[in-house]
Amino acid sequence: MIKYWRLMILIVCLLGSILAIGFKIYPYGREGVEITYISLESPARNMLEQGMIITHINGQQVINVEEWQRLSGDLSGTIEITANAKPYTFSINDTIGIDVMDIERTNMEFGLDIRGGTRIILKPTENATAEVIDEVISTLQTRANIYGLREMRFYSIRGLDGNYYLQIEAAGVSKDIVDELLSRQGSFEAKVSKPVILEGDQGIIVLGDKSYSVSLSSDDSIQIETVDDKIELSDTFILKGIDFQYLNATEDGIMLLATTYTGKDIELVYSDPQRSGIRPFGEGYSFYFAILVSNDGAQRFADVTSGIPKHIDLVSGEEYIDSQIFLFIDGSLVSQLNIGSSLGGHVYNSPQIQGSRETLEEATEEKFRMQTILRSGALPTTLETSSIDIISPTLGAGFFQSAAIAALFGGAVIVIITFIRYRKIKVSVPLVLIGLSEVVIIMGIAATNDMYIWGIVMLVNLAIILTAWWKKEPIDFFAWAGALLIPILGMMSWTIDLPAIGGIIAAIGTGVDHQIIIADETIAGRKKEDENQAIFDVKDRIKKAFFIIFGAAATTIAAMVPLMSLGIGLVRGFAITTVVGVLVGILITRPAYAKIIERVVKR
């Protein structure tokens, strides 16, 4: 039996692939739905999380998405949801605000082409390097995690024009989230107006413990001590390490605008009720939250606000300095606040950001978006939406049905043609079965959470190899390498999308070609020579066939490697799957098929 050790390795790898694909642990049961998104207005926002498994609503079992939609459609009042085997109780006002999808039944990680979702392509407004895109991905992953979008995937892709793009895949993301959260650069600036009183055309700019003389010319340009060039209206300059802009001039003085805080100064964004909240304001709602800034930023604030006169507001009775702080995000003004007299000239580490919206839901969402952007930091480059594709999961289901029908039809055609050619059903049927086993092994290698399974496969294969060597069976270094390499590849995983399925189809086509080469070199070649001689040199003929096969396989792998490392993201899955398919073929399935053909010839 051990003389068929190549077939045994094929069977072990096949069984391991089946287990890797189908052996899935359900910690909360096989029935239920997975949470894909929780809206900001959902009453479950701070209780449930994306990725949790919902199994019951008000004691009724949730089997699938259809059952979830039926049970959650007319809910109101207090309800109880069981998620991850724990009960959660909350009250519903208008909507439950939870999107779900069916639990995945296999360990396969399918792309959006198969399971449905949203694919977004973001383009940098200026040419960006791969390192810049990686930094963008890191920042956006932080935003997605804070926002609760943990099932979102980010990929760096390179277009045919040589430029880098950012591809985002998610089970469900609205355009508002793309525009207001993902594609926003998040550049934060806090600027303080700095009035300078003139006597005649001369004045003093006070910055903390330093003073700078300034003079106003007839053409409204100004000249500042330590600044060599004349400063025109709207020009920028630097004093004491602080960026200033010259805004305007009047008879009484000039107005400057100083940048005191930037995004790099933000150390903490507060969300506790004491420093963050929403309150009614006029016909809408205003929101506010405080941020903690660095000591350097706070010192700049103290320097800029020093030496500014004070006044009392007649409406509120509060005392303020004759200045305001303006808060900008991505160049847009989001807050304009007065500065209390007690803060002027003092180190101020906790400025407050304010805004307003018409409804409570809009104010809540905008407040949370701004907090998320400031927490994650600014992107190194600005992004614009290149395309948004909404993919229905029904397309994937239809594709699988069509692929199954095409596979059955193709297998039947191959059996008929090879039977007509060789007149042997023992040649035709194994050719198709080994081709199908090759597909299963490729899918098993791509599956996730299968490290232990492939570890066992490797140990069993090693035992088979050692036993064959002990029994002095012919040595086949390629088959030995495949017995150990394929389980190692099985410990990796990748997404099965349409390009990857294209790679599987390419591997199938290559496999059929290679197996026909083996059959043609052995069985058909026998007719040209004495039958006994053909029996003796069948191994030589198989070696000749494998010489051709290895040459073709090397060419295919060499063509795919550039696509794996340099190609655009959409074809990387195709390249990986094709290379893995070729390796499975030449190291596992081709040696097994050659052993079958050798036995057929000898008989």
Structure description:
The chain has 15 helices and 24 strands. A hairpin with a 2-residue loop joins strand 14 and strand 15. The longest helix has 34 residues, at 569-602. It has helices at 5-22, 65-72, 112-115, 130-147, 175-182, 295-305, 360-376, 393-422, 425-446, 451-470, 477-490, 498-522, 531-536, 538-565, 569-602, and strands at 33-38, 53-57, 60-61, 77-83, 86-92, 98-102, 117-124, 153-158, 164-170, 188-199, 202-207, 210-216, 222-224, 236-239, 242-249, 253-262, 266-269, 276-281, 284-293, 310-312, 319-329, 332-340, 352-357, 383-391. Strands 10, 11, 12, 13, 14, 15, 16, 20, 21 and 22 form a 10-stranded antiparallel beta sheet that branches. Strands 1, 2, 3, 4, 5 and 6 form a 6-stranded antiparallel beta sheet that branches. Strands 8-9-7-24 form a 4-stranded antiparallel beta sheet. Among the domains are: 2-23 and 393-602, Up-down Bundle (Multidrug efflux transporter AcrB transmembrane fold); 33-102, PDZ domain (Pdz3 Domain); 117-185 and 382-391, Alpha-Beta Plaits (2-Layer Sandwich). By secondary structure, it is of the alpha+beta class.
